[in-house]
Amino acid sequence: FFDLTGVNYTLSPAGESQDGHMLREAVQSYFLNIPVKTGKHNTILAPGFDRTKLLMNDGNDLSGNSLKFGLLHLHKWKNNVQTVFLFQVKSNYHEGKPLISNHHQTGGAFVFSKKLKSGLKYSVGLDYNREFFGHFFVPLLGVDYKFNEHWQVYGLLPNNYSIDRKVSQSFHTGATLSFATSSYRFAQNRYVRFDDNQFRLYIHLIAGKHNVFQIEAGHTFMRGLKIGSGNFARNTETEVQIPDGWVMKVGYVFRIYEQ
User: Fold this and answer.
1) From CA 77, how far away is CA 192, in angstroms rounded?
2) What pairs with residue 213 in β-bridges?
3) Quick one: which of 99, 70, 84 has its CA closest to 41?
4) Global pTM?
5) Do residues 19 and 242 touch, judged by C-beta distance below 8 A?
6) β-pairing, 224-229 with 246-256?
7) 157 vs 33: CA distance, rounded Å
8) pLDDT tens digits, residue range 156-192?
9) Cβ count near 205 (within 10 Å)
10) Exposure pattern of 123-155 as b/e (b: 16+ CB <10 Å)?
């Protein structure tokens, strides 16, 4: 399937760590994928915006905004081989403060995929982003497989990986595992790094051919928050102990399914 556009809201209520720190997380995300096809080449223009509210019980507001634009090129080769190149620029800045000169990030990804005769598709790749704490490389690995008319797995780890059960044409249920690392410019040479890892169970309700309404609930794990100094390098960094907690997510996507 292909998601043309969507919006979602994620909330993780405040919990308390052993040293008394509490964190309330709320994320709003908006995205748009504009496909442009020329012959065998497929290009996708992908603007998006994320607003992440991180509120501590000591009064610290570590919230950040991410305005991003991606250019994705997909090419299908012979023998069921496909390659994907992504180039992305971001403006990641602390909410409520004026923009400063060094709040931009650049990154990209490459993914190689091959579909076997059995129907199994495997993918390997590499993701890169120039975070405020330095160069950040993440290897990617994925296996997509449809076991039968009801069960399938798909995704790329460590970004997102899902197991999905099709109950009916209008009702899907399943589970998703996701890992995300981001950094926001807090001051001229200071940044906030947030590692947000989640496991969620979901229900997807499909109305008409393309409208998908998402309801998800789960728990975070090994969540991390660091405040550091450095201009695209890690000079000093202080870890803030934050608790894991329950997470809830609702969303809507306009989805085009493969025939």
Assistant:
1) 41
2) 205, 252
3) 84
4) 0.86
5) no
6) unpaired
7) 21
8) 999 999 999 999 989 999 999 999 998 988 777 788 8
9) 12
10) bebebbbbbbbeebebebebebeeeeeeebbbb
